[in-house]
Description:
Helices cover 42% and strands 11% of the residues. By secondary structure, it is α/β, with parallel strands linked by helices. Helix 1 packs antiparallel against helix 5 (75-86) and helix 2 packs across helix 6.
Amino acid sequence: xxxxxxxxxxxxxxxxxxxxxxxxxxxxxxxxxxxxxxxxxxxxxxxxxxxxxxxxxxxxxxxxxxxxxxxxxxxxxxxxxxxxxxxxxxxxxxxxxxxxxxxxxxxxxxxxxxxxxxxxxxxxxxxxxxxxxxxxxxxxxxxxxxxxx
Length: 149
């Protein structure tokens, strides 16, 4: 299965643009920061912070989140492979993405869906919030310092 996933992922990422993936996937699966926190503390989701190491150092990381930089040295294929590995190869595993303001996660969510992940949501307010909603930190949800970033 892993070999087939790698082949499929490589073909997908070489042939489909981000805008096209978003249109094809037609996803708008969102989850609030507070709901995501409840689920991650209950081990019901894999929460993934997709920001860069310097961002993790500046603000810390949402408690319980894995850090997988979307700007992976191997590109989107490398990023998706790390997500795949993080969920033990389970394409149906519940995954929630978080970034700074929700913008990047809203673009990555349909890419992961197109790669075969079936249960990907994102936190639209992100870590720091946006014009519509306060973020993880402003809502008083716990963060962990990133000492090894």
